[in-house]
Hints:
Oligomer: heterodimer
Number of strands of chain B: 9
Helix content of chain B: under 10%
Strand content of chain B: over 45%
Structural class of chain B: mainly beta
Strand content of chain A: over 45%
Largest sheet of chain B: 5 strands, mixed
Distance between the termini of chain B: 37 Å
Amino acid sequence: xxxxxxxxxxxxxxxxxxxxxxxxxxxxxxxxxxxxxxxxxxxxxxxxxxxxxxxxxxxxxxxxxxxxxxxxxxxxxxxxxxxxxxxxxxxxxxxxxxxxxxxxxxxxxxxxxxxx
Amino acid sequence: xxxxxxxxxxxxxxxxxxxxxxxxxxxxxxxxxxxxxxxxxxxxxxxxxxxxxxxxxxxxxxxxxxxxxxxxxxxxxxxxxxxxxxxxxxxxxxxxxxxxxxxxxxxxxxx
Lengths: 116, 111
């Protein structure tokens, strides 16, 4: 069964802190994604990765960085947390390669992050 | 990606089939229809996808019209746990690039 696990369901941090959000998938997927979801704005892509140590910017990368040292793990880092980064953060993963482009992205349960 | 249109909301009685429609009249020949749902405070959950043939899995069935301009997601025996927002999207590739959901259909399953 497909499993994308995010390290925390709820997290509260203070302005200026460095925040790490972790995501692990057990499906041997090549692609991994970080989104944030806000009311009225839908899903917005922050960063994605198609291989170990590879990363690509999404639509809203400012204030964030990512790390993919192992295939199964994709970390999102808030370098210096600000209140406008309070949001639901969603990690997703998918297969890559020939014949797999129609395969879906699978999501974790999300981390609801509050920056005070 | 082709635009999709879904009803804003629908109610369904527990134990009955829920039929969720989606219009995608501008769909291209190589675009797939995907269904996701999102239960409150959880991440989106993939349900099913198809190109032109009807599909069935352990969660649901997907019926795509012959002209591919609309589709219906069928939850055969709705339970209270099926209460969620259901999203229909049309994509050439869903494994790559950002996913964007529309407003979706709020389904409420009642006892």
